[in-house]
Design brief:
alpha+beta; 4-stranded antiparallel beta sheet; globular; Cyclic Phosphodiesterase, Chain: A
């Protein structure tokens, strides 16, 4: 299978927010290597709780992972990315809080932000012309029980069900957890995040291209650019 690419918001690599998220997952996507977990985690349990999101690195999805269609090269995506970020303005999106989203735990803005949603919508549309159509295997994997008709329509049209009206900005901290494990993990992450108040203010001021070289491989940041500048 060809490499997959995604457009993510990832905080600056040296920011308190990114250091917290990378330590929660045990992986730094900027460097492409494992890092130490947050102090106080159960070393025998925590890697299992974060195994799935660790592959993607600490981020918020703006354009979900995609393969490039025939005739489109990585340099074409990079060029499109450079043109896109140059036309976008940074978004002050309020305060981040730790929340349970269904069965997993994530950082989310404490209040909805329409400007941030519009940026995500623009990302979905701007890069879709470079996206290869999903394979039958990929569609089968995404066609999970519980998808609405609109989700299915978006999946076929945009390659992902949770876009536009169904988008919710979030930065994942754990995989899907049973209630008992989720309760303990939630309390732990809340406590840790409260200790770094400087990480709670969310300004979406940059985007990155993240690349997965092969199925199951971790995503690694390929390019980053501040919004309002060229890549």
């Amino acid at each position: 299978m060809a490499a997959r690419y995604a457009i993510y918001y990832a905080p600056a690599a040296d920011s308190a927010l990114y250091r917290f998220g990378a330590a929660a997952l045990g992986y730094d996507a900027y460097r492409g290597n494992d890092v130490s977990y947050l102090d106080g985690v159960d070393a025998a349990v925590w890697p299992v709780l974060t195994r799935e999101p660790r592959i993607y690195g600490f981020h918020a999805t703006m354009k979900p992972p995609m393969r490039l269609k025939d005739g489109v090269a990585e340099r074409d995506l990079v060029a499109a990315f450079g043109a896109f970020v140059k036309e976008q303005a940074p978004v002050d999106a309020g305060t981040l809080v730790v929340r349970e989203l269904g069965s997993f735990i994530a950082l989310v803005p404490d209040q909805p932000c329409a400007t941030l949603n519009r940026l995500a919508d623009a990302c979905v549309e701007a890069f879709d012309g470079l996206r290869a159509q999903m394979t039958e295997q990929e569609l089968t994997k995404r066609l999970a029980p519980g998808l609405s008709d609109r989700h299915i329509e978006y999946l076929y049209r945009w390659g992902y069900p949770y876009v536009f009206e169904d988008f919710r900005f979030h930065m994942t901290l754990t995989g899907a957890l049973a209630v008992q494990k989720r309760t303990g993990a939630f309390k732990f992450l809340c406590n840790k995040f409260e200790q770094i108040p400087e990480a709670a203010t969310l300004t979406v001021d940059r985007l990155v291209i993240s690349r997965q070289a092969a199925p199951g491989a971790p995503f690694v940041v390929l390019h980053e650019a501040a919004l309002g500048t060229s890549a």
